[in-house]
Amino acid sequence: MYGLQAEAHFDGAHFLTNYYGKCENLHGHRWRVVATIEVEDLQDGTNGEGALRDDGTVTNDGTMRDMVVDFGVFKRIVAEVADELDHTFLVEEGSLAPATVTALENEGFTLTMLPFRTTAENLARWFFDRLAERNLPISQIEVDETPNNRAFYAHEGHMGR
Question: Which of 6, 73, 131 has the alpha carbon at shortest distance from 63?
C-alpha cells in the first residue's frame, strides 16, 4: 500500500447546539486537516488514462510514473476545500433563528450553513466526502480542533491507522 498525506488549516467559529458546557457558546479554532490517500499500485504512466498535473493539464507522458498522485495537485485540492471554510462561521442548519442568520449576514458575516452539528467528527466526514468527490483515493481525514484534540473519519477497513 502506498500513500500520501497533505495538511491544510482554516480558521472558523462555531458552537454546539444542545450541548451543556463551554462549547455551547460561540468560539473559534485554528482547525488542522490532514488528508490521507492510499493506492495499491503506483501509476505506471503507460495506461493511457492520463494524470492531472498541478497546472490543471492532463498528461499521458509518464510524468506521474511511480507516483500515487502529483503532490502539488493533492495539496492544492486539500487547501481549496479547507479554504471554503476559512474565516467563516460554521452553523448547523436550523440551529439559529432565521432572523439571527439574516442579521449576521446583513452585518457582513460569512456563514457556512452545514447539514450537521459542527463537531470535529462531522467535519472530518465532510472533508472526506468533499475530497472523494474530487476523485482522490481518500482513506482517512483527521481534523484537529486544538493541538491536543483530534477526530478522524476513515474508509471502512482503514480505521485508526
Answer: 73
In angstroms, the CA 94 to CA 105 distance is 15
Helix, strand, coil share of the chain (percent; to 5): 25, 35, 40
Q: What percent of the chain has pLDDT over 70?
A: 86
- The pLDDT of residue 27: 96
In this prediction the pTM is 0.87
- 3-state class of 134 per DSSP? coil
Q: What is the DSSP string of 17-81?
A: TT--SGGGS-EEEEEEEEEEEEESS---S-SSS-EE-TTS-EE-SSTTTT-SS-HHHHHHHHHHH
Q: How far apart are CA 128 and CA 34, in angstroms?
A: 10
Q: Which residue has the cell 456563514?
A: 111
pLDDT tens sequence across 58-78 = 666 667 778 888 888 999 999
Q: Beta strand 27-39 with 149-154: parallel, antiparallel or unpaired? A: unpaired
